[in-house]
Amino acid sequence: MAMTYTSREQIEVYRFNVPVAIGVPLAAIFLQAFVPLRLPWFSIFDLPLLVVIFFAMARRSPVAVLLTGAIIGLVQDSLTHYPLGVYGISKTVVGYGASSLGVKLDAESVPTRLLITTGFYVVHQVIYFTIARGLVGLNLHWSWPRELLAAVVNAILAVFLFALMDRLKQRA
Amino acid sequence: MGRYRNVSILAAAIFFQVVGLAVQIKRRTEDDSTRLIRVWTVNAVTPFEKGIVWLQSGTSGIWHNYIYLRGVRQQNRDLQQQIQQMQLEQVRLRQDAQQARRLQSLLGFKEQFINKTVAAQVIGSSGSEQSRLVYIDKGSDEGIRNDMAVITANGVVGKVSNVINGSTSQVLLINDQNSGVGTILEQSRLQGVLKGKASGQLVLDKIMSEEEVKLGDQVLTSGGDQIFPKGLPVGTVSDVHRGSEFLQVTIKPAAALNHLEEVLVITQKLEREPSVAGSAQVRAADILAQRLPSVPDAPAGSPKNTNEAGTAAAGAKPLVKPAQTGIPASGATASAAPPKSKPQPESEDVAASGLANPRSAAPQSNTQAPPVSGTHLVPAAVPIKTPSSTQVTAASGQPKQTSPSKTSAIPGQSTNGSPAKVAPLKPPSVPPAKPAVSVTPPSSDTGEPTH
Of A94, B354, B402, B441, which is the most buried if we count CB atoms within 10 A? Predict the structure, then answer.
């Protein structure tokens, strides 16, 4: 019997194999760290965040996904020189929120995915900036146009990425 | 109770992370060691990055060095022409440099020399726009330690902020907001602290608003931060805004911080007084610049000294083959190859110091370019490439006679333990001679914020 990474929700709940559950976030973090070296504009994307949102909407288990978000965020924090937890907290909240919302929405449709990703990208950035400025004391620059643009760009990428990752889902 | 289970877990998860965050922030000043989770993460991610970089550079090397050679002959001809022009200029610059060193010697200046550098490949980044740092494929095994300066031939890149393991280190870029570099403006000699902004811009801080700063003025390291040797290019002034108390000077970085591929970590610096006898020593910046370029190998028929001096040592492919690339060698010290006492300084002497004979490099040149040269121009257009596995050494001291096979083609590199040329770092001189040496007043570096 294969080990699975799943929840016990009954409606439109999906599970993921352990390799997928570990490999996809790691691949996202790796790409996020590597690709901007060659393509600096790529840093506008936040692949780990998109992965958290995808898992959240597919699994619909707030507890499991908030832990997933926390782990992905902490690993992402590890690659920066800032204290661990800035991304961790942001992605924890996003994971929980997206999972809770995913239960009530049709997470398979493109418009829903666009809206959810756009909204949670902004939420993620707001939390990140709040923690970074308030707790860590970083002097970060907030720009609404830039953040909104990044949110839309990430949402568009998410539509394609989620369609791709849908193939990795297994019905629970 | 079960109704609030999810929210409780969420609250607990956030609580623990906030506590963890708070502990780290408090601890950071006391204990600067690398946390285990960072080591694990980097160890998990960097092997993939190293693999891809290796594959990429291998493929690129095969393509560019063996297949795509279109235009190489023309490029070679152009470079040869360029060398001849530069040799003419070199003669004049050498006089300037010698004069500058004599003056420095009279004034009892201390010069900083880059004694040893390690070439490294950039293999990853933080993946965050807020954290401007990169990872390099050299670590404690290569002698890398925290706070070592990281540069390219174009200019300053940053400093080593964390040595993760034996083969990986973290480099904080100069445009990160936690960075700070002691700098000096080349023209006005004003000193200031270069800092990064959240947006990634570089600004020069602490320059009084009544001072005059010109657009396009070169910014060099002042050496006051005790990390970067004096005289390394940092960037140019791209914008100046007059504030109430201080000027807001925006700097365009000299190094391509967004497209870093290879860098040099300065692992050892020396400080000593310049001597007139050593006035013909090559500058550190020149050695670095010479070491980095890697144009496609020149076609056969290069001067014979090339082969001797061009023998790569330590199994590393030579970064630069001065004669082959047509770059005239420079920096043979007077003691190593004085033109009068040794009228024919053959390649052994020169090769011992990792330098080729300029006369052999460009025999047609009517310029009497002696082997002793104080300065050296490196064409800016020469592409730069540095094998990551090569440890580059530009040590101080007198060059030893060694067999050509044991010497390196890389100017300033010594692989047999004998030190190569010393590279005094000085800012370029007054215009129009761009890379000339200028006499700098004794800078009061004390009190300048450190990096």
Answer: B354
Q: What is the ipTM of this complex?
A: 0.77
What is the distance between the alpha carbons of residues A172 and A2, in angstroms, rounded to a whole number?
13
Q: For residue B264, what are the β-bridge partners?
A: B119, B151
Measured CA to CA, the distance from residue B161 to residue B316 in angstroms comes to 27
In angstroms, the CA B51 to CA A23 distance is 17
* Total domains present in chain A: 1
Nearest to A66 among B9, B127, B133 (CB): B9
Q: Dmax over Cα atoms in chain A, in whole Å?
A: 51
Residue of B nearest to A127 (CA): B14
Residue in chain A closest to B131 (alpha carbons) equals A80
Please classify residue A41 by burial: count the beta carbons closer than 10 Å to its beta carbon, then call 0-12 exposed, 13-18 middle and 19+ buried: exposed
Which of A31, A37, A75, A131 to mutate to test binding with chain B, by most B CBs within 10 Å of its CB?
A37
Query: Which residues 6+ apart lie within 8 Å of B48 measured at CB?
Result: A30, A34
Q: What is the DSSP string of A95-112?
A: HHHHHHHHHHS-TTSHHH
Compare B37 and B25 and report the one with higher pLDDT.
B37
CB atoms B21 and A43 under 8 Å:
no
Q: Does residue A7 lie within any of the structural domains?
A: no
DSSP string, B105-132: HHHT--EEEEEEEEEEEEEEE-S-SSS-
Q: Which of A58, A90, A83, A46 is nearest to B31 (CA)?
A: A83
The whole-model pTM stands at 0.60
Question: Which chain A residues have a beta carbon less than 8 Å from that of B175?
Answer: none
pLDDT in tens, A68-99: 999 999 999 989 888 888 999 999 999 999 98
Q: Considering only CB atoms, which chain A residues are within 8 Å of B17?
A: 70, 74, 85, 88-89, 92
In whole angstroms, give the CA distance from residue B25 to residue B203: 26
Instruction: Measure in Å the smallest separation between the Cα of A57 and chain B Cα atoms.
Output: 16
* Spatial contact of B189 and B441, defined as CB atoms under 8 Å apart: yes
Residue A9 lies in a domain: no
Q: Are B113 and B27 in contact (CB under 8 A)?
A: no
pLDDT tens-digit profile of B121-151? 898 888 888 888 999 999 988 889 998 999 9
- C-beta separation of B253 from B202 below 8 A: yes
Classify residue A5: in a domain, yes or no. no
* Partners of residue A81 in chain B, C-beta under 8 Å: 126, 131, 133, 161-162, 170, 172, 176, 178
pLDDT digits 0-9 by tens, B224-238: 888 888 888 899 998
* Range of the structural domain that residue A35 is part of: 16-171
